[in-house]
Amino acid sequence: MKLWAGRFSKEADHRVNDFNSSIRFDSRMYKQDIKGSLAHAKMLSAAGIISSEDAEKICDGLKGILSDLEKGILGFDFDAEDIHMFVEEELTKRIGEAGKRLHTARSRNDQVALDIRLYLKDEGYEIIKLLDDLLKVLCDMACANLETVMPGYTHLQRAQPVTFAHHLMAYAQMFMRDVGRIKDALSRMDLCPLGACALAGTTYPTDRALTAELLGFAGPTANSLDSVSDRDFCIELCSAISVIMMHLSRFSEEIIAWCSWEFKFIELDDSFSTGSSIMPQKKNPDVAELVRGKTARVYGDLMNLLSMMKSLPLAYNKDMQEDKEAIFDAVDTVKLCLATFTPMLSTCRVMKENMRAAAAKGFINATDCADYLTKKGVPFRDAYKITGELVAYCIAKGLTLEKLPIEEYRKACPEFENDIYEKISLETCVCERRSTGGPAPTEVKKQIGSVREFLNREDENEKA
């Protein structure tokens, strides 16, 4: 019999039951549901709302259900409406009348709001751990490639020389911000809605601060209507996850290009590549391609959540049951992508010679040639024009700036001297870019150091 059956003279149509049921996907929150019920029972007893004997029976029964679910002794009843009803009905079967007192001074509205917050807090910290693992790999790879010169690009055109370490540290900055975004979302999620009941609180003398404390929240939510009727914490977390996926997708796009014969900057390990059913020579970067594709899926989850909430009046509406599949899918997807992307990256082979060879083409030291003249007093705009004319001459003659005779340099501008060749060497171009955040090895070492300090703080916070 349904919890709400007393009001109705007919059983719900079986199609309504199937349509209404959420246990197929909210059963994953069983730990959080039981944890919330344990805290609620303890609060009810402390407030004198139920007897200590009933509270003890309830807590023992809940712990037994949890243990049996964990051991596989008890399976979910998918005929139950949701995880909350499954647990409550199982509890009542086991301990009798005392089990019926557990739902005093709460509603499924505040119960589900609690469960999903608890679940997403747990999952948010798991995502942070996976991001930390990726950051560690980026640091290790950067340390091994401080002097691996490669072309930096704008508009997918070779632009200026950088190092592979510098390139990796750009992504490290992005993923560190992603950690911050997840933490920000978790901090705003860290309030306990239990006790808000259906929408207007309760006449029982509950202690919501105690419930929040027992569940590890910073405190109770401030408004009972808001407590049960918003899912902005799901939307904010999904938004942060979408940004992570966007960063992973951009990185994947580069990896896909770098693996191609046209670049050949890296080679993925065989264990993180796939082949073709018809072309025996193929080695495909399917992991990176799937990460790129799954990014669209997570964006869809975010749009699902935003669209679901955009027209809902206060307070709870059944539409909000749709929040779980979307946010669960986003969480599952980003965790799967991070857990696969990180070892794919850590096991790839960096083809340093090919990166260096690509950097030697495309006149990516032209800016340094112009800077050479500027430092000798030539106005930058004039130096820029002179260098552009030299590049055009080299292209016409099949030369590079490194191979251009000094006589041709001096024809363009008498300020050129023989030291121009040393000044425009790729290694000099990189090493001289010592401005804060630049690609010089000394600067990239600082960047790696700051990421490692960030990770050390993460480790300390986790231990605390």
Fold and architecture overview:
This protein is mostly helical. The chain has three domains: 18-104, Fumarase/aspartase (N-terminal domain) (Fumarase C, Chain B, domain 1, Orthogonal Bundle); 109-146 and 164-202 and 218-351, Fumarase C, Chain A, domain 2; 366-424, Orthogonal Bundle (Ribonucleotide Reductase Protein R1, domain 1). The chain has helices at 14-20, 23-26, 30-46, 52-71, 83-95, 97-100, 108-143, 164-189, 208-214, 224-229, 232-259, 286-309, 323-346, 352-359, 366-374, 380-397, 406-412, 420-423, 426-431, 441-463, and strands at residues 149-154, 157-163, 266-267, 349-350. The strands form two sheets. The chain has a two-stranded antiparallel sheet. A two-stranded antiparallel sheet has the order 3-4. β1 and β2 (157-163) form a beta hairpin. α3 (30-46) crosses α9 (208-214) and α4 (52-71) packs across α5. The two termini are 46 Å apart.
Topology readout:
Elements lengths: L13 H7 L2 H4 L3 H17 L5 H20 L11 H13 L1 H4 L7 H36 L5 E6 L2 E7 H26 L18 H7 L9 H6 L2 H28 L6 E2 L18 H24 L13 H24 L2 E2 L1 H8 L6 H9 L5 H18 L8 H7 L7 H4 L2 H6 L9 H23 L1
Antiparallel strand pairs: 1-2, 3-4
Strand content: under 5%
Total beta-strand segments = 4
Tally of DSSP helical segments: 20
Strand order, main sheet: write it out.
1-2
Name given to the CATH homologous superfamily of the largest domain: Fumarase/aspartase (Central domain)
Distance from N terminus to C terminus (CA atoms, Å) equals: 46 Å
Give the count of structural domains.
3
CATH class of the largest domain: Mainly Alpha
Question: Can you give keywords for this protein?
Answer:
single chain; 464 residues; mainly alpha; Fumarase C, Chain B, domain 1; Fumarase C, Chain A, domain 2; Ribonucleotide Reductase Protein R1, domain 1; 3 domains; two-stranded antiparallel ribbon; two-stranded antiparallel sheet; 20 helices; 4 strands
